[in-house]
Amino acid sequence: DLYVYYELTGKGLQLTDGLFHSKAISAISKFENSLIELPGWQTLCREAANESKGLCDPGMTLLRYVVPTQVFEGDSLIPSEVTLDAKGYEAVETVTAIELMEQDEVTTLFLPEELEITNDVAPTAVRTSFRFRLPCCTSADSMASRRASTNAFKTRWENFVIDEVLPLLLEGADELEGEKFINVWYSASDIDSIEVKVAIMDDLVLVALALAYVHVYLFVHTRSIL
Q: Tell me, what's the pLDDT at 223?
């Protein structure tokens, strides 16, 4: 699982619709699309069961309800069909988004539980969750086989987070926060141990460079490799 949290700050608190404002929605959409378009993300999501693919693309995001795909027939201003795919070209009214969320009973999944939900609500914080639900084992598999599959996926997840997700999360968060209107936080499965491992590996690189420098320095001044 991966969770991304957004909170308005500074200039963002002046947005009349809060995180429903078009500026905030556009920034969140750009950020989340950059995650979903990662090669490793696409590979993992394709392997998920069909009924679970939506949990990783587009994920359980506010965008599903704010920018759904709407189909109109003829000159009608009322859509004949609404698909909650976060791929719409135009945001719906806040009241409509709230109604759609309440119908699916997911309001508290995105918005703070203590927030009073009204037709003109202007939230300053929202959450998006992504889940990769991949098949692991069958009841016929041995315990050893199940453990091996689980460990293999953990290793795969760790490499994916280190190589693709973390760099983009840090870069994207810095970019959003650089606009001085929205803060971004994240959490994920095993993220604490992964970040500790990354920090240790970075420190080891610095130690190796320092040792190399010392050896070069000694060689230059003593003319000996001993």
A: 59
What is the largest distance, in Å, between two alpha-carbon atoms of the chain? 87
**CB proximity list for 15: less than 8 A, separation 6 or greater:** 8, 21, 23, 24, 122, 181
User: CA 21 → CA 109, 120, 123, 129, 194, distances in Å?
Assistant: 19, 11, 10, 20, 35
What global pTM score does this model have? Answer: 0.81
Q: Are 136 and 153 in contact (CB under 8 A)?
A: yes
Burial of residue 8 (CB within 10 Å: 0-12, 13-18, 19+) is: buried
Three-class DSSP category at 82:
strand
Residue that the structure tokens 């991949």 belong to:
134
Over residues 67-81, the mean pLDDT reads: 89
DSSP letter assigned to residue 60: B
